[in-house]
Write a structure and sequence with these properties.
mainly alpha; two-stranded antiparallel sheet; 4 helices; single chain
């Protein structure tokens, strides 16, 4: 279980995201129903709902054998990936940027030519 800390960090990240999403969706829902967000000490009701959902998601993912096994296998496979070095990354990024600029210039020229052609034929006094 060398991957356990990565798996737990991933589960915690997913649970936190889902908790924030639930809270973010609950606030406008309450506002639409003209309900004031209740306060429980320093926390609001939507915050407690988000925290509760996040904890439940974290515990469910942590206890589910299929999810845990899939995450463990994914981390193990990601450890085998050979990431490109700085030179290869710079070369690849340069190719992408040059290709993008070439395609943008070609489309701009095409648009310019056809705008002239259509304006000549459509808006002429003939």
């Amino acid at each position: 279980m060398r991957n356990q800390r990565y798996i737990l960090f991933g589960f915690l990240s997913v649970a936190t995201f889902i908790g924030f999403a639930v809270r973010g969706l609950a606030i406008p829902l309450l506002a639409r129903m003209d309900v004031v967000d209740p306060h429980f000490g320093p926390l609001t009701g939507t915050s407690l709902l988000g925290i509760t959902v996040g904890v439940v998601v974290f515990l469910t993912m942590n206890r589910h054998r299929v999810v845990y096994s899939f995450s463990d296998e994914s981390v193990t496979e990601l450890r085998k990936v050979v990431w490109p070095g700085k030179d290869e990354t710079v070369r690849s990024a340069t190719v992408v940027v040059v290709t993008t600029l070439f395609i943008a210039a070609t489309l701009a020229a095409y648009d310019f030519v056809w705008a002239r052609v259509t304006s000549t034929f459509l808006f002429s006094e003939g």
